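Page 37, continued from 36.
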């Protein structure tokens, strides 16, 4: 995968619409407080789920993979002592640092690699990723990141991540993505393409349950799979 192209896409989106592109609800387009509140609600739901499905999860250090402007990273600090958010887009990381400068429990790191070599093995108690892996254009890179999740988790640590096992046919065609690419090559401005024509460069990738399990094995046990066959499929796994 051309990581530079992928990074450019998300930097461009961060300049065009840093809030909406992360959490696609029109009501949050220009409302940072509302966006952050949605992050708190999501993390509260995660905690309720973990209380039932991963009751022995530790709350020392967590990773928010694909943090954007820190919508979830900040919310996670209400439970974890230290939370690190990583993102491929330096525009997102810069905004996250500004928005959460008063929260010493947050740290934001730009990661331009197709791995997590910026972290040592056995670093995190918990890894969370939502609406991020699905946008990585190549499956082998998604698999590489999942194997890295296993590497940087501490023994008995947990990961909870979303990756579609089913995407509606119209989203798989990726017409808006192709039009965005073609028109941008002719010199049409990204602002016009995105805000007026409602086009974007985002790709949505799906992977079968069997493929995900193969990426995580050996070294983990899958504890739960929610929403199989849907875009919002979510996996809970524990490092052995």
């Amino acid at each position: 995968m051309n990581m530079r192209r992928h990074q450019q896409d998300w930097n461009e989106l961060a300049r065009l619409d840093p809030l909406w592109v992360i959490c696609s609800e029109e009501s949050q387009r220009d409302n940072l407080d509302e966006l952050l509140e949605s992050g708190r609600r999501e993390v509260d739901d995660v905690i309720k789920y973990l209380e039932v499905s991963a009751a022995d999860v530790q709350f020392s250090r967590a990773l928010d993979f694909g943090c954007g402007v820190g919508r979830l990273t900040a919310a996670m600090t209400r439970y974890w002592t230290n939370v690190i958010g990583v993102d491929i887009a330096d525009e997102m990381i810069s905004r996250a640092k500004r928005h959460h400068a008063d929260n010493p429990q947050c740290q934001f790191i730009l990661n331009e690699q197709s791995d997590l070599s910026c972290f040592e093995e056995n670093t995190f108690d918990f890894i969370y990723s939502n609406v991020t892996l699905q946008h990585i254009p190549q499956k082998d890179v998604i698999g590489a990141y999942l194997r890295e999740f296993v590497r940087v988790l501490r023994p008995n640590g947990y990961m909870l991540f979303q990756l579609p096992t089913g995407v509606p046919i119209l989203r798989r065609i990726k017409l808006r993505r192709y039009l965005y690419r073609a028109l941008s090559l002719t010199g049409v401005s990204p602002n016009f393409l995105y805000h007026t024509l409602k086009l974007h460069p985002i790709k949505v990738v799906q992977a079968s349950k069997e493929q995900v399990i193969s990426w995580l094995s050996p070294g983990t046990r899958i504890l739960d799979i929610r929403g199989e066959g849907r875009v919002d499929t979510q996996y809970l796994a524990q490092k052995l």
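The chain has one domain: 3-167+204-239. Flag for discussion at group meeting. DSSP finds nine helices and seven strands in the chain.
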